[in-house]
Amino acid sequence: MVTLKFENQEVKVDAGELVGYQVDGLEFIHQKGEPGWRNADTEMFPIIGPTAEARFQVQTPRDIAVQDQHGLLREMDYELVEQNGNTALFRKEYKARTPVLNSKYPEKSNKKYLFWTYDFGFEKRFDLSGEGLSIAFTVKGERDTPFMLGYHPAFKLYTDTPEIIVKDKSLTLQEVLDVGSRALHVPDCEEIVLKDREQLRIRTEGFGNFMLWTEVRNMVCIEPITFYPYAVDQHRLHEGFQFLKDSEKTFKVHINKV
């Protein structure tokens, strides 16, 4: 467990997963074991969304890859590269076509192993400061490597009537619940404010969209994404790819109490 502290803030990171963000002792991150979701955060990479209807196959410029829902990055372990009082850097490395064991097999998937058709490196950096918590995601690889990226944090809710503020419009938790497993798409958006017992601002760089998901009333996932996967048929997920223009690209998420 890595603990970062700055003034009245404390962050806890377990093997690269953000499992705690407290400000003045109030916890903002959904806790594992509570109803809602078995994780506190994860990354969706190199694809976002379900693939079962496409027989877990995703077309890439190089060949067909085998991917389960939200990709294979979350099946890999982070290496802690650097840590000090208010910063921690984690890394994952992948060699093209290396089989990765699928945790959904055999209960929810018939694919025991997943693979991608490109090498990649992925870094996740936490920085805690007076401006709040910043999380930077850096994708590394050869030029024209295809990918999608989504960040999937779950935020703890304390009240029965939280509001999600998007461009001066207020969304209710019920509106998110009503959409179900597809998640509510928030297009062309780089900032959301969650109003609950306290107010939390989630601001992004590079993603461009959000989707909102929950199945319970004690948490909500506010997920920055580069592509909303339900905009296309599962056989056409490749239409949502970005491509590396250089050897790396960085995306950022800033979280702070308002």
UniProtKB/TrEMBL annotation:
> Does the keyword section mention Calcium?
yes
Cofactor (UniProt): Ca(2+)
Which keywords, in A-to-Z order, does the entry hold? Calcium
Q: Name one GO biological process term.
A: carbohydrate metabolic process
Q: What is this protein called?
A: Galactose mutarotase
Source organism superkingdom? Bacteria
Quaternary structure, from the entry: Monomer.
| Organism lineage string | Bacteria, Pseudomonadati, Bacteroidota, Flavobacteriia, Flavobacteriales
Q: Which GO terms describe its molecular function?
A: carbohydrate binding; isomerase activity
